[in-house]
Each structure stands twice: as C-alpha cells, then as structure tokens.
Amino acid sequence: MPEVAEKSRMPRMVIPEGVRGQVRGALFDCDGLLVATEDLFTVAETAIFADRGVVFTPEHKARVLGHPFPEVGRRMATMLGVPGQGVALAEELLARMEVLVAEPMAPLPGVVEVLASLRGRVRRVVVSNSPLRLVDATLRAAGLHEQFDAVVTVEDAERAKPFPDLYLRGAELAGEEPGCCLAFEDSATGVQAARAAGIPVIGVPKRTGPHASADIGADWHVPSLDSLAARALIAQLVRA
C-alpha cells in the first residue's frame, strides 16, 4: 500500500496557528512546477552552447536556473565569452523554447488535482519569470490555460524573481494580502521572491538529476504535488 508507506516517511509539518486555514490566494510558479519545461530549457540551452562549440554542463545550468530571460542571456554571454550578446542569446533561447512547447504536454503529477481542489475556494494565479507569450503557450500545451484566474509574467513588474515584485502583483490580483496567500515553487530563486513578498511557500524541489535538492529554502517541502504531504499541507493551510 504505497500511501501507507509514504505516510510513514512523511515528515511532521509544523504550521503556525496564525497561518492555519488562513490562505485565500494560491500563487503558482509555472516552469518546473506546473509543467516539466525545465528539461526543455536544458535542451534549448544545450543546443545554443553546442552551436558555439561549447558543452553545456551542470555547472552552466546551475548558473541560469530560475532566472528571467534577460539575466539568462547575460549569464550565457559571459559563460560563452561573448559579452554584449546577452540580448541576442535571450531572444534565441525564447525562440527555441516556443518551438519546444508547441507540442502538447502533460502537467506534472498532482497539478490538475491540486487546482481542482482549490477551485471555488481561492483565486489561483500563475506567477512566472518567463514572458507572457511563452507562459501562455506552455499553459495551452498542457491544457491549463483556463485553470487560473490571472497570470503574472515578467512584463508585469519592474523586477523579476528573486525580487518580490511579481509575487506582490500576484497577491494583488488574487485580491488578498501577501500573508493570506500561499506560493508553490520549485526553485530557490522563486522561493526567495515569495518569501521576500511575505508569502509562505510550499517548495517542490527537483528530486532527481544534477540539480536535485531536498531543500530550496521554502517554509515546507514536499516531494511532489501528488504526495500525501502536499495534500495534507494544502488541507490545513487553505480556508475551507
């Protein structure tokens, strides 16, 4: 019985009384949290490096993971030894990603169920470091484009994650104070942004591959959104 086994391994989740049952807005990262697009980013980044005769390594990936396109372009330009080409590299990465997300893809495990459990209880908002055109294409490819009440993308604030601006805008669109919202993130960059905005965070870190981590600095960590731990946390944090 897998659920019984999982329950026996599930760590105790400490939830302050002031937070329990108070969540009225749910804010979701997109890439790597709703859909496994981070692997597609790696495909695109690997191709960009290969075209320039450079092998894209896990160390390179660690330097760009979770950052907005302009910053990724700037960092790639530095790593490739072509300073001044950051804007062009960011545009190339975006163009490659638009091709890759054009095909239908499945949401990550538990996403559909979590969104369904929150429908009618809280407003659901996407908060992404990616441009709107890519986020919209990704949500459509995964069949999630009608599952959210609002979408916040990098164009909607002066500063991207890890600054709090996007999450503050997400809370505003949810119609709630930041402390009455709950963020879902898969990267340390996103967690930093949510916490800087005063929003508690459930972290769903990548558990396999070269960037696997059990702790990305979130208030709580779960192995996936379809885990017993995730369901238990949501049940206790979100208003009935």
Summarize the structure.
The protein has helices spanning 2-9, 38-51, 58-64, 69-80, 86-100, 111-118, 132-141, 165-174, 188-196, 228-237; strands at residues 25-28, 123-127, 150-152, 181-185, 201-203, 220-221. The protein has 240 residues and is an alpha/beta fold.
How would you portray this structure in words?
By secondary structure, this protein is of the alpha/beta class. It folds into two domains: 169 residues, 3-Layer(aba) Sandwich (Rossmann fold), CATH 3.40.50; 63 residues. It is 43% helix and 9% strand. The protein is built from ten helices and six strands, in the order αβαααααβαβαβαββα. A six-stranded parallel β-sheet has the order 3-2-1-4-5-6, covered by helices on one side. Helix 9 links the parallel strand 4 and strand 5. Helix 2 packs across helix 5 and helix 4 packs across helix 5. It is globular, with a radius of gyration of 18 Å. The two termini are 29 Å apart. The N terminus is likely disordered.
Calculate the mean pLDDT score and round it: 90
CATH domain class name of the largest domain = Alpha Beta
**CATH level-two architecture of the largest domain:** 3-Layer(aba) Sandwich
Order of helices and strands: HEHHHHHEHEHEHEEH
Q: Give the CATH H-level superfamily of the largest domain.
A: HAD superfamily/HAD-like
Approximately how much beta-strand content do the residues carry? 5-15%
